[in-house]
Amino acid sequence: MRIGTGFDVHAFGPGRYITLGNVQIPHDFGFVAHSDGDVLIHAICDALLGACALGDIGQHFPPSDDRWKDCDSVVFLKHCHQLIQQQGYQIGNIDCTLIAEQPKIKPHIQTIQTRLADILELNPNQVGIKATTTEQLGFTGRKEGMAAQAVCLLLKM
Ligand SMILES: Nc1ccn([C@@H]2O[C@H](COP(=O)(O)O)[C@@H](O)[C@H]2O)c(=O)n1
Ligand SMILES: C[C@@]1(CO)OP(=O)(O)OP(=O)(O)OC[C@H]1O
Questions:
Q1: Where are the domains of the chain?
Q2: For the chain, give me the number of helices (H) and strands (E)?
Q3: Complex ipTM value
Q4: How many of the other CB atoms lie within 10 Å of CB of 25?
Q5: Where does 4-CDP-2-C-methyl-D-erythritol 2-phosphate bind (predicted)?
Q6: Distance, CA 54 to ligand 1 centroid (Å)?
């Protein structure tokens, strides 16, 4: 059994939607990022990699590499999933927290849960997605960006 944690932040910038867990959510801003900026998937990738001591997403997909420019973060997630399977592990469960004042995540949680479960070939009840504000404190409170935390438990296959 292995446990991993991941954390990521992206700033808001010009745009009309953000992508979270491969779901496009309408917003007054987009994410500033090299890839599609899917902060939730990036945190999950780091949790999976961390659980197997395989480094972090930036080591596997360097922002200096043009191949990952505007890349769909599902590419990163599938690769990280394959790596942990090659180490002999499967996902027991994932639990995530999105930290932002805006946009409201609750209406999209079920869609995100189902999408991530499909991508990772899990039951939706193995993918916890939660959201919280920081009570208007800090960069998330000032609506400058969003943070995501993820924890995963891996089980030996
Ligand atoms: N961006 C967000 C932040 C929070 N929520 C939901 O609002 C509820 C209350 O949040 P607190 O900051 O008071 O913990 C909570 O149930 C969150 O799910 C949201 O939808 N989007
Ligand atoms: C995902 C990568 C891909 O180049 O870039 P960004 O989209 O900027 O996201 P970040 O969370 O900074 O992770 C680093 C990179 O691996």
A1: 2-156
A2: 5, 7
A3: 0.96
A4: 16
A5: 8-10, 34-35, 56-58, 132-135, 139, 142
A6: 32
Residue of 27, 28, 101, 106 with the most ligand 1 atoms within 8 Å of its CB, for mutation: 106
Interval 28-60: pLDDT, tens? 999 999 999 999 999 999 999 999 999 999 999
Quick one: how far is CA 146 from the chain centroid? Answer: 11
For domain 2-156, the question of CATH label 3.30.1330.50 is answered with: yes
Rounded to two decimals, the pTM is 0.98
